[in-house]
Specification:
rod-shaped; single chain; Transposase_22; four-stranded antiparallel beta sheet; 326 residues; Alpha-Beta Plaits; 4 domains
Length: 326
């Protein structure tokens, strides 16, 4: 007998491994040609030796659904026929294809269902996105209109505020006394500034404002006539009054007295910012006229009215309307 693997004759002492899958025991191996050693095979004994199956027939049994039960060995022909599974290969391939096609069809169906669901969800989300974009455009339009309306209201409010303050005058630097007479102080100041002023006739209100910083509180003068206020301002720029000019003889040092327009809150913020920009050299100059802050930007030869901080930080590129009062 020859070895089922290498084809060489087996030893005469019959020391070889016999596969139990073939009934006529024609499937035999040298121990060197199979997976079991001679020593192990001998130690097994007759019962286990008669149940041993070679690797080739073991693979064939797996392909046809065998679980190691030798009851299926009848399907293997005697005499070592069909050792390569040539007759069973088409059947096995058919079963594999059948199983593959079934699994593929199942997965394809699941994929199609998931895809349709995803497609439906995408459609819903796309519709929602369009609705949100439309709503967003409407909100942006409304927001723009509201900003424009608020800005217009601010301008109207600021204009009214400025108009209410047009007759007012702020006097700074006048020392405070326990029993001071503001009427006399204002009369002396007007006399030094060569302005005809009668407190009872020309002044509606006269009082000190609440303190916001160290030093004497400023004096608010509400005049009945705007021209008289403007004349006082003009004269103060020319004559530059001090405490000695209004009979504050107790003061050894001459303290400057400043007359300013009564600015609105927005104009005060712009003035404060303009003061800082002037120190930095960002603008050439600034001044106050009729309640508005006028600024001369670098490389420009005319003053521009600044109505908000945005205009001050980012001056318009076009030539602005210059002030008629220079």
């Amino acid at each position: 007998m020859n070895c089922a693997r290498c084809g060489d004759p087996l030893p005469s002492d019959e020391l070889h491994a016999t596969c139990s899958a073939v009934k006529d025991k024609s499937c035999v191996y040298h121990f060197a040609c199979t997976t079991v050693s001679q020593r192990t095979y001998v130690q097994w004994g007759t019962a286990k030796q008669s149940a041993w199956v070679c690797p080739k027939h073991r693979e064939i049994k797996k392909k046809i659904g065998g679980k190691g039960d030798t009851s299926d060995t009848d399907s293997i022909k005697s005499g070592g026929e069909n050792l390569d599974g040539e007759e069973d290969s088409p059947k096995i391939l058919h079963e594999i294809r059948k199983l593959f096609n079934a699994k593929f069809a199942e997965q394809t169906e699941l994929f199609n269902k998931s895809f349709e669901g995803l497609k439906k969800d995408i459609g819903v989300q796309a519709k929602r996105i369009v609705e949100l974009e439309t709503a967003n455009l409407e909100l942006r339009k409304e927001n723009k209109e509201l900003k424009s309306e608020i800005n217009n209201l601010w301008q109207i409010s600021d204009k009214n505020d400025i108009e209410l303050r047009r007759n007012n005058l702020i006097v700074r630097g006048v020392p405070e006394e326990e029993e001071e007479n503001l009427d006399e102080i204002l009369t002396d100041l007007a006399a030094f500034l060569e302005t005809d002023l009668n407190v009872e006739r020309d002044v509606d209100e006269l009082f000190r404002l609440p303190a916001r910083s160290a030093g004497p509180r400023p004096i608010l003068v509400k005049l009945a006539c705007r021209k008289r206020r403007d004349h006082l301002l003009e004269q103060s720029w020319k004559k530059k009054p001090t405490t000695h000019d209004i009979n504050f003889s107790g003061e050894e040092e001459k303290i400057p007295i400043y007359l300013n327009e009564h600015l609105s809150q927005r104009a005060s913020e712009i003035l404060k910012k303009a003061t800082g920009l002037k120190r930095e050299g960002t603008i050439q100059a600034f001044r106050v006229r009729k309640g508005y802050i006028q600024v001369k930007h670098t490389h420009r030869d005319r003053f521009e009215i600044i109505r908000n901080l945005k205009e001050l930080n980012s001056p318009p590129r076009t030539t602005p309307q210059s002030s008629k009062n220079s």
